[in-house]
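From the methods appendix. Each design record in this collection lists the tokenized structure first, followed by the designed amino acid sequence. Records were kept in a plain field format so they could be parsed without special tools. The example shown here is representative of the layout used throughout.

RECORD:
FOLD TOKENS (382 positions):
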């Protein structure tokens, strides 16, 4: 990748954020299978950062570990990274998409829209959030950008929600050295609690990058032309994944990667496929971004200086499928912006579109007596 010095600094910052973020999620989640996308979270929060001000902006910058970069350098570097990642390997499909959805008639600062359109290629859509199909429209975009792997990220839209900033990443890579399906066999997989289960274990023998230390041994399995890879860390005897997690930081990570050497390795890897969802509010709060979630103190005047805005939810969902041919994975991060108060003098526009089955009642107003009730499922007029 032909990156500027500032872009390389941003990658270093993102890795630092990503490792800390991953540790935070692992600490707070007991699910057996967990996967997050630090890049997806960073891009969604990067767009949101363009609307933050004051101490809220400072907290986000510190949490994302962007202290050494100016706002302009952050935006330019994210743009450069996205541009080059998606065209890095012709044998790997990597799509990165961003979008902003804001409530109908909600005023948004032009500079905020322009920055995110220019540097993050964000699609900007004004949408009536009160419509029953509003969340389906947003989820339809998510479904399309993740090739159907993540069909939904928004479960409901509360009346005080005014904006969603969404990142979607889709990855599909074939192994440079594919596993022979005929060598896949059922083997035992031993759990950390002492139990074991049967898995489909893939197997191959190739010259790949390998390293080992007192805590784990690791292989780096390349995709396509070798521009992307899967770095797999296997705990050593008497060690667990928790022992590796404790050591996760930028310095150790760089040291582990740099220690990789080409070796002839027999690789046995179970096939696996799972999805994962997590609300990131607590994780990001623990990492120092709590003010952004505080309705009384958050400052997102860069989005709209006249309204009291805060981040109500950061939703994160991932999917991965690893098999003999390669890996298909996707991630979506949605930053939900809500309003803390309403202007009572502001006119409220409601919509009622009876375009699906409905119930009706004919009643007497004064007494409330119901005269007729019915359901219209197939309106006819003859």
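DESIGN:
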């Amino acid at each position: 990748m032909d990156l500027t010095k500032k872009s390389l600094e941003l990658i270093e910052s993102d890795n630092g954020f990503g490792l800390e973020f991953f540790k935070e999620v692992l600490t707070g989640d007991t699910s057996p299978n967990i996967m997050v996308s630090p890049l997806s979270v960073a891009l969604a929060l990067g767009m949101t950062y363009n609307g933050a001000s004051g101490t809220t902006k400072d907290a986000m910058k510190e949490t994302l570990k962007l202290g050494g970069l100016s706002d302009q350098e952050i935006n330019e570097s994210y743009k450069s990274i996205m541009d080059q990642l998606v065209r890095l390997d012709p044998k790997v499909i990597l799509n990165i998409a961003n979008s902003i959805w804001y409530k109908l008639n909600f005023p948004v600062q032009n500079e905020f829209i322009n920055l995110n359109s220019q540097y993050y290629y964000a699609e900007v859509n004004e949408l009536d959030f009160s419509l029953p199909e509003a969340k389906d429209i947003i989820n339809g975009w998510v479904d399309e950008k993740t090739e159907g792997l993540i069909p939904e990220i928004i479960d409901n839209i509360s009346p005080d929600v005014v904006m969603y900033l969404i990142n979607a990443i889709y990855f599909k890579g074939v192994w440079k050295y594919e596993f022979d399906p005929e060598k896949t066999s059922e083997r035992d997989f031993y759990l950390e609690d002492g139990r074991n289960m049967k898995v489909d274990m893939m197997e191959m023998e190739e010259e790949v990058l390998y390293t080992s230390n007192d805590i784990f041994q690791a292989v780096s399995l390349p995709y396509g032309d070798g521009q992307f890879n899967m770095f797999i860390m296997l705990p050593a005897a008497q060690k667990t994944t928790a022992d590796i997690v404790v050591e996760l930081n930028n310095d150790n990570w760089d040291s582990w990667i740099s220690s990789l050497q080409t070796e002839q390795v027999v690789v046995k890897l179970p096939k696996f496929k799972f999805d994962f969802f997590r609300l990131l509010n607590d994780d990001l709060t623990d990492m120092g971004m709590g003010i952004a979630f505080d309705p009384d103190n958050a400052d997102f005047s860069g989005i709209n200086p006249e309204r009291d805005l805060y981040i109500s939810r950061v939703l994160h969902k991932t999917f991965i499928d690893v098999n003999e041919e390669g890996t298909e994975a996707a991630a979506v991060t949605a930053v939900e912006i809500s309003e803390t108060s309403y202007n009572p003098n502001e006119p409220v526009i409601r919509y009622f579109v009876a375009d699906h089955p409905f119930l009706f009642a004919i009643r007497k107003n004064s007494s409330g007596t119901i005269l007729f009730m019915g359901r219209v499922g197939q309106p006819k007029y003859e």
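APPENDIX NOTE: The radius of gyration is 25 Å.
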